[in-house]
Amino acid sequence: MTVNRVLIFAGGRLNPGMLREVRSDDWVIGADRGALFLVEHGITPHLAVGDFDSVNEEELDRIRRHSKELVICDPIDKDLTDTELAFDLAVQRNPAEIVLTGVIGTRLDHSLANIHMLLRAAEQGITCSIWDEHNYITLCGSVCQVEDRGYTYVSLLPLTPVVTGITLKGFMYPLDDATLRIGQSLAVSNQLAAPVGTVYVNEGWLLIIQSRD
């Protein structure tokens, strides 16, 4: 089955406001406690997946009863995080787009691993983004439009060791054929100067992080 867009709700920081983004034709996955979040807010996930070590038996039974499909993994004998399991199952649906939410939280290791999934999606030609109350994160490897989504700042951080040919149009602080290396903060806390800005990249992968406090 091919779908246009897959939404993955993981067990990190979740906001009910994200539920307004769910469209009738979306394929919705709840990863571990993200599945409970969906069920508690009246959304039936097409798939609930994970080891479910963050929910109790009563909550797991509720997830089971209100999900179209449930996949439970052994919490010890598994190599992937619950979010990556959900991501892999999403890719199998051949979507044009994957949206991840609840994938940033107090665990920095999990947050970074989830951000790295943007690269996996891009390498397969899938548009992918991470949304939450404070951040909207995408990845750029050529030309990208940055829309004003109500966030205060736009920061650019290299995901590959070096990103070259960075040019910005429609930003408060423009760049022209710049190079960024991992560890540099030159492009942190920029702002849009127009409703839509454009980011050009010649070589490498650049994280575009729209954020607010």
TrEMBL record:
One of its GO terms (biological process) is thiamine metabolic process. One of its GO terms (molecular function) is ATP binding. Residues 141-207 form the Thiamin pyrophosphokinase thiamin-binding domain. It holds the Pfam family TPK_catalytic. The keyword Kinase applies. Its EC number is 2.7.6.2. It comes from the Bacteria. The keyword Phosphoprotein does not apply. Keywords: ATP-binding, Kinase, Nucleotide-binding, Transferase. PANTHER family: THIAMINE PYROPHOSPHOKINASE. This is Thiamine diphosphokinase.
